[in-house]
Write a structure and sequence with these properties.
five-stranded mixed sheet; two-stranded antiparallel sheet; about 170 residues; about 25% strand; Nucleotidyltransferase, domain 5; alpha/beta
């Protein structure tokens, strides 16, 4: 008896449904993609200091800006508080006053380029960035132009010292 073999042809792949899916999916994903610009600011942590080294360099400025919930304290690590800038009547921190004070300090110490920003834990991130921007650069009028000048571009960040309550000491 003769055997009959059926001849089968290889099955073809139908990829039209997949191509249709890709044609719809690619424009959708591209249109919903979020393109964001990242800005990076180089920061450094403050160096550990010993009391003896601080006493030796007492004539140098170690600018510290402490951001508290009720205001901004600008001071020297060794010399103490230079000025306290209370919150404005609107309830916001007075960044413009900080910029003016930073320019005044820069005029007295033109070679100084570093500052330390010490925010309290509950300070909003936006306030921290505004303070850093006010310290890094300021605007100055030169002739008919307003130019940006570098004030204290080398900024270090740390934690604000805990404020002692008036009734805490017994």
């Amino acid at each position: 008896m003769r055997l009959r073999r059926l001849r089968r042809e290889p099955a073809g792949l139908d990829v039209t449904a997949f191509i249709n899916l890709i044609v719809v999916l690619v424009p959708f994903l591209l249109s919903t993609a979020v393109f964001s610009r990242l800005a990076v600011v180089d920061l450094s942590l403050p160096a550990q200091s010993t009391g003896a080294l601080e006493r030796l360099s007492a004539d140098k400025l170690n600018l510290e800006v402490v951001i508290r919930a009720d205001g901004i304290e600008v001071g020297d690590r060794i010399g103490g508080l230079i000025r306290r800038i209370p919150r404005a009547e609107s309830g916001r921190h007075d960044i413009a006053a900080l910029g003016l004070l930073a320019r005044t300090i820069k005029e007295r110490f033109p070679d100084k380029t570093d500052a330390t920003v010490l925010p309290e834990p509950n300070v909003p991130y936006d306030v921290l960035v505004q303070v850093m921007d006010a310290l890094r650069a300021g605007r100055q009028v030169q002739g008919a132009k307003v130019v940006e000048v570098a004030l204290f571009p080398d900024i270090s960040i740390g934690d604000a010292p805990v404020r002692q309550a008036a009734g805490a000491a017994r």
